[in-house]
Amino acid sequence: MTDRTASTLDTVLTDLAAESLQVDQWVAGLTAAGWATVTTPEGWTVAHQVAHLHWTDTASLAAITDPDAFGRLMKSAAEDPFGFIDTATDEMAALPPEELLAAWREGRVALDAALRSVPDGERIPWFGPPMSPASMATARIMETWAHGHDVAESLDLVLRPTARAKHVCHIGVRARGYAYLVRGEQDPGVDIRVELIGPDGDVWTWGPEDATERVTGSGWDFALLATRRRHLEDTDVRADGEHAAHWLTIVQAFAGMPGADPVRLGDR
User: Which of 1, 33, 60, 258 is spaced 20 to 30 Å from 115 by Cα?
Assistant: First the structure.
C-alpha cells in the first residue's frame, strides 16, 4: 500500500472510529426500555439501528476475509433482495443489549484491521460494484452517521455537527447517477457544481467550477438530505438550475431503494 493510499485510509478509518464511538456512547448507558425506543416510522428501535450497523460490519468483514461466508450472503440477497437485511437485523436486534453492544464493538475492531490489511490496488467485493478499502470505510461512515442520527433524534439528544459529514456529502454527490437509476430515470448528463459550507466554516466542493447549474448551502443539511433524513424544505440547501433542483428531490447516498419520502418537520 502506497504512503498516500495508507494515509487516506487511515484518515477515513479514524473518522469512522470517531463516528462509531459517538453512537456507542449514546447507547451504552441505556436501559432495556431505552434500547426499545422506536426510531423510525417503520418501527426500528435503537437495538435495530445498532444491529444493522453490526450486521453491515460483519458483512464487510466477510467480504474481505471469508469468501465462502460472503458468498452465502450474496445468495441470501439474491433469494430475498428486499428483505434479507431486515431479517438479519431483526435477529440481531433480539439479542440482549449488552451482548449486541459487545459484538458491535468487537466487529468494529476486526473490520478496521481487515481494511488495513487489504493489499494496495485490490478491491473488495460487495453487493454492488467492488470497492477500495477507503471507499468501503467511507460507506461505513455514511451508514453510521445516518443511523446514529436516527438514534440521537429518537433519544432527544443534541447533535453537534462535525466535519465528518463531508464523507456523507461525498457519497451523495458521487452517487448522483445511481439516484436517477434507482428511480428509473435517465441521467441528464448535466454538470452540477456543488459548494457546501462545513460546520467549521470550510468550503467543500465537487464538480466543474464553470458548471452552469449549482447546489449550495449547509454541508450538514446536505448530508441529512442525501441520507433522506430531512425534507428539502427543512434544509439550508438550494439549487440553481432545473436539473440541480430535481436532483435535490432524489439525492441518495445509500444503496437500495429510496424508501418513503421524508415528511416536513412540522407534519411529524
Answer: 258
Residues contacting residue 26 through CB under 8 Å, at least 6 positions apart: 148, 151, 152, 155, 157
- Contact by Cβ (8 Å): 186, 240: no
Give Cα separations from 123 to 24, 43, 53, 117 (angstroms).
29, 35, 22, 12
DSSP 8: H
Q: What is the dihedral of CA 8, 12, 17, 23, to 10 degrees?
A: 170
Listed in sequence order, the residues at least 6 apart from 89 whose beta carbon sits closer than 8 Å to its beta carbon are 44, 48, 51, 52, 55
Task: Give the tens place of pLDDT for each residue, 90-101.
Answer: 999 999 999 999
pLDDT tens-digit series, residues 124-155: 999 888 999 999 999 999 999 999 999 999 99
- Amino acid 263: pLDDT: 85
CA distance 32 to 232: 35
What integer pLDDT is reported at residue 53 of this predicted model?
98
Question: Cα(162)–Cα(194) distance, rounded to whole angstroms?
Answer: 19
